[in-house]
């Protein structure tokens, strides 16, 4: 995916991936996925003037626009997500896609279907698995990806792109949270939301995880 490639070109760099889910009691809800590269916009602008960085060709703005259009179109055509919309801030390099889902299974299907299409364009096998579950007042963020082998293949310069990168999850509920399984998770003052922020390098190297089982009262 061109956006993933762009991230690798920012060395050293800082970017954040933000995953938000607002869950209703019946399992329906709203999701928003954001890539925020605003802290690296000067680096990005410089990189886009080059043909290659660290031996890799630099994608052009047109490639990024095509990737966003493809992601949004896939979600709309998929049917599992409704009210799909996206925001594109080309000045600060902040991009997001959002929509409503009727249940967590529909959200999982939409994410997997989008991943299949994106991976197909990259010529790599799709990684199909559930990212969320919800049953008996327990909402869980699942994570069973193994990125360590791919990470080891990167050059030391490419690995620097992940040094200050963050992955943030924010989950909001209609009822109070009883407990969270992830020790890095922080509950809001209202007790109806939980946030988890970890370094992406720690996630890739399995030092930290975004796995979280949230028990609702």
Features:
217 residues; alpha+beta; Immunoglobulin-like; globular
Question: What would you say this structure looks like, in words?
Answer:
With 217 residues, this protein is α+β, with helices and mostly antiparallel strands. It has one domain: Immunoglobulin-like (Sandwich), CATH 2.60.40. 30% of the residues lie in helices and 33% in strands. The protein contains 7 helices and 13 strands. The protein has a 7-stranded mixed beta sheet with strand order 5-6-2-1-9-12-11. α3 packs antiparallel against α4. Residues 1-12 have low confidence and may be disordered.
In total, how many domains does the architecture comprise?
1
Indicate the low-confidence ranges by residue numbers: 1-12
What fraction of residues sit in β-strands?
25-35%
Q: Can you identify the CATH class?
A: Mainly Beta
Q: Distance between the terminal alpha carbons, to the nearest Å?
A: 40 Å
How confident is the prediction overall: mean pLDDT?
Answer: 83
Read across the widest sheet, the strand sequence of neighbours is 5-6-2-1-9-12-11
Q: Can you tell me the CATH architecture?
A: Sandwich
What's the layout of helices and strands?
Blueprint: H1 2-9, E1 16-23, E2 29-36, H2 41-47, E3 52-53, E4 56-57, H3 61-78, E5 81-89, E6 94-101, H4 104-122, E7 132-135, E8 138-141, H5 148-152, H6 156-159, E9 166-173, E10 177-180, E11 186-187, E12 193-199, H7 200-204, E13 212-216
Parallel strand pairs: 1-9
Antiparallel strand pairs: 1-2, 2-6, 3-4, 5-6, 7-8, 8-13, 9-12, 10-13, 11-12
Helix pairs in contact: 3-4
